[in-house]
Recover the amino acids of this structure.
């Protein structure tokens, strides 16, 4: 056992919240886990899964006497959670979150945080396309990055404590300012999701190609996009609305590049196309070398003979 | 042994050609495999891998007395192969190909095919992001679709023989006309590859986010695109140039849809965003139900705890 906190309150118990619950329990990081979610159905399911020691639909009740509060809700709900819990936070408590956009979360939560707590915005880069408490699993954060975007004047000791927590889960911790985080995530995460959602929508709308053909032949490329496009709609709608400026900037660049490529296709400029298609190969190699993806062909999906 | 052909000539010995070689041998589908490729280096490698019984850099020599000729080259090279082999084809031989675009391949090859052979264009929807003779493996075609796009007046018996060949490899065979094939593939395969290449290029060009940040944090979505964007540049340049019209049509639709989504993000229209993000989830479910992708989160990529 490696107890770091007496009581941890998990506000929100979806994929991230439930994975946190499994790991806190497995690693013995808290004496008590309090689970809070607004939805009675989700709370019931969390209970059935045995994710916490106490359960409540009230975030305010949940944070009572908690040493660490982790808010894992769609980013658009950050302000209402902050308002609800503000008056019940114990002096010295650490409040953190896991939201995919950081400037917006800070703007929504910081004004409500009392002086006597440590508010440290965070973002674990971990997850899958599944959502809800049933999607969580132990080890989700192992080997993944967690980015802190601390505000000015953050207590060094509190930050160190929170860092130890994430490191106990197996994560590597980085720090950057919220604006930079939002730009980085716009390109590595938000734009890919938006593009994936968009292309799947385009395919769904065709008249000349049937939906059953799209599905039947999807292994020739399309299916790779459908994974991201199956992610939680509420979470991703909120990301779009709350990292608007950085996303619009990346979308503008993407569209500009696509117009260039489209023109090269129209005019048969094979060398321009070839140059791009060669350059992008190198990036894949770097990602595999950095251990950020598997080297096995097809993401290591099983091929027919493997199954026999 | 289940010999279907006395001599099979493989023109081109990359990922597809070499996978064919492994399966023809493994399943005993031919008495003799002749391997031809223009590149002496590739031919040498094919020899080292033991892919054939005879090896030549001359396609013309390779097809001599062959009963089945499978052309597996970038689609832009189809016409020059057709010209080279035309005068040496034996009466009654079946000539097929594996190209990703079909109207163009027919336009390039059909005029050169002598009356006394059976030219049956084909397209196995199989492959990985790897290329070259080292990328091939037995079983690549097992459980995958192979689409024939026969021209008018094709001999029924020859088509049946070719169908049996692909079925022996474990493939399911479909037939459609070349124009429809090119539209279907434009959306399920060509557009996804082009979009993947494009977004990886956009990320590579940023000034405010470093390349090392893109790589480091790529697991949050971006890496899914890098697999397709690591595909063979020559093959994909040729696809772009040889299925131009269908690709430009799909690109126009995609861009139109993206402009709509971008506008919804700019104006904070959460319900429009939510509607799309919900609709796309259903497509993923259908693909998984149809057995066209794995249901495991993250394409079944191993998570940290699995490896231990």
């Amino acid at each position: 056992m490696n107890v770091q906190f007496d009581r941890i309150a998990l506000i929100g118990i979806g994929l991230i919240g439930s994975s946190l619950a499994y790991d806190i329990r497995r690693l013995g990081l808290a004496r008590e886990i309090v689970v809070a979610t607004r939805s009675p159905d989700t709370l019931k399911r969390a209970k059935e899964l045995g994710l916490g020691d106490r359960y409540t639909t009230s975030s305010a009740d949940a944070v009572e006497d908690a040493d660490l509060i982790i808010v894992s809700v769609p980013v658009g709900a950050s302000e209402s959670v902050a308002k609800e819990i503000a008056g019940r936070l114990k002096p010295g408590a650490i409040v953190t979150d896991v939201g995919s956009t950081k400037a917006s979360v800070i703007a929504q939560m910081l004004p409500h945080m009392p002086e006597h707590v440590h508010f440290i915005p965070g973002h674990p880069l971990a997850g899958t396309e599944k959502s809800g408490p049933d999607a969580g699993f132990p080890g989700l954060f192992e080997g993944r990055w967690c980015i802190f975007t601390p505000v000015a004047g953050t207590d060094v000791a509190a930050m160190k404590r929170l860092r130890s927590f994430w490191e106990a889960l197996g994560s590597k911790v980085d720090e950057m300012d919220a604006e930079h985080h939002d730009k980085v995530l716009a390109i590595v995460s938000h734009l890919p999701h938006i593009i994936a959602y968009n292309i799947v929508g385009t395919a769904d709308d065709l008249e000349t190609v049937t939906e059953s053909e799209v599905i039947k032949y999807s292994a020739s490329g399309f299916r790779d996009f459908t994974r991201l496009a199956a992610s939680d709609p509420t979470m991703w709608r909120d990301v779009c609305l709350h990292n608007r400026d950085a996303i619009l900037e990346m979308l503008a660049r993407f569209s500009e590049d696509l117009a260039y490529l489209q023109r090269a296709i129209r005019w048969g400029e094979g060398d321009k196309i070839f140059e791009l298609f060669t350059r992008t190969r190198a990036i894949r190699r770097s990602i595999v070398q950095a251990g950020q993806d598997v080297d096995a062909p097809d993401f290591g999906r099983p091929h027919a003979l493997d199954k026999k």
About this structure: Chain A has a mean pLDDT of 96. The first strand of chain A starts at residue 5 and ends at 11. Strands of chain A lie at 5-11, 30-36, 54-56, 68-71, 94-97, 118-120, 122-124, 145-148, 172-175. Chain A has two domains: 5-176, 180-268.
